[in-house]
Amino acid sequence: MSNELQPVDRVHQAKHAFTTRRVDFREVASLLDTATPRAGDLVLCEVQAVGQHKTLHSHDGRRMDLYGGDLIVVAFGNRYAPDQFEAEVPAELGDCHLIAAGGIAGEMRSCHARMAPPTRIRARGLLQRANGEVMNLADYALPRRVISRRPPVIAVFGSSMNSGKTTVAARLVHGLVRSGHRVGAAKVTGTGAAADVFHFRDAGAAEVLDFTDAGLGTTYLAGLPAVLQGFQSLVAELALRAVDSIVLEIADGVFQPETEALLSEPVFRRHVDRVVFAAQDSLGAVLGDRTLTVAGMPLVALSGVFTQSVLAVREASARASVPVLHTDTLAEPGRALSLLHGAGAVAGPAQGQAHAGLTSPAPVVSAMAAVGV
């Protein structure tokens, strides 16, 4: 590799990934090709062979087609995705993989059997400032905020990838918006990607953030202190933007290391008022119910992919400690408010959906809860 072959102006000509949307590219002074990469380091890469990821998410969420020879600016990171790739930051610059369309470079360790080989890329150099510092996503994180009050917070956990977490969170956002709330939404953990952010915006959220705004390209192997700091930054920032309620999505399943750690973390538990659990099937829903109950989390409903099946709803409802609600039901204003404020409900499936009746609509509460972050 040679810096002379990859002048800095090619950084500006490259395709910039979604994960880099907060980066000030005017700071780029040179490329460093002899360093050990760290999670979050910004890197100029050349596409060697297009594989599983054929597109790269842009700053505005557009899917940019990838071609062999393309130059892209992404961030190094680790990934934990049972339905896709397991990957870690490589030990040195050189050949590696695009392991997430949002713009994460890593070295694949394992993959799901349905995955095509990952897109192969070659690191041409880390982005460097004039003072010699390597540019990292953490340098562009939201500032630390101190707040004394926050609005009510409802979090969505799940049994796994593709269990319906984002859909559940988006439906809750939409229901709260329809009730008159100014809603803030954030994805707290996961791998940087544009899709979830834009799902929340499309649902009507007035303010949307994710962990990349807190300086983390991914949260896998970031360590609990960094994940908690990111969580606090996101909640505090949304609170300061004067939202009436906050909906959070927690990535992957409750057995994922960072997610499992959050369940037992007092700081996290103090700042989540209600929890909805999403699952792919009835067994996952019931196990999720028991896992969150044992953890002492304030679970108020089960939902997700499994609610598309009348039989799965029937199986889960017979064993669950909370209502089973079809995802579409969550977009109803009264239902969303009842979940946010903890009103009880009685579940019962009808026409392929799990419905629950309200004895009375929950009041619209926009005052901030007196709980500090």
Structure write-up:
The chain has 373 residues and is of the alpha/beta class. The protein folds into 2 domains: 3-137, no CATH class; 153-357, Rossmann fold (3-Layer(aba) Sandwich), CATH 3.40.50.300. It contains 9 helices and 19 strands. Helix 3 links the parallel strand 13 (183-187) and strand 14. This is DUF1611 domain-containing protein. InterPro entries: P-loop_NTPase.
The helix/strand series, from N terminus to C terminus, equals HEEEEEEEEEEEEHEHEHEHHEHEHHEE
Across the major sheet, the strand order is: 14-13-15-12-16-17
From the N-terminal CA to the C-terminal CA, the straight-line distance is 46 Å
Query: In CATH, what is the homologous superfamily of the largest domain?
Result: P-loop containing nucleotide triphosphate hydrolases
Provide the number of structural domains: 2
Proportion of beta-strand residues: 25-35%
Helix content estimate: 10-25%
How does the major sheet shape up?
A: 6 strands, parallel
How is the CATH topology of the largest domain named?
Answer: Rossmann fold
Write the layout of secondary structure elements.
Layout: H1 9-13, E1 15-16, E2 30-32, E3 42-49, E4 55-57, E5 63-65, E6 71-76, E7 79-80, E8 85-88, E9 95-100, E10 104-111, E11 119-128, E12 153-158, H2 165-178, E13 183-187, H3 195-202, E14 207-210, H4 224-240, E15 245-249, H5 257-263, H6 266-270, E16 274-278, H7 282-294, E17 299-303, H8 310-317, H9 333-341, E18 346-350, E19 353-357
Parallel strand pairs: 1-6, 6-10, 12-15, 12-16, 13-14, 13-15, 16-17
Antiparallel strand pairs: 2-11, 3-6, 3-11, 4-5, 7-8, 8-10, 9-10, 9-11, 18-19
Helix pairs in contact: 2-3, 2-9, 7-8
Protein name: DUF1611 domain-containing protein
InterPro entries: P-loop_NTPase
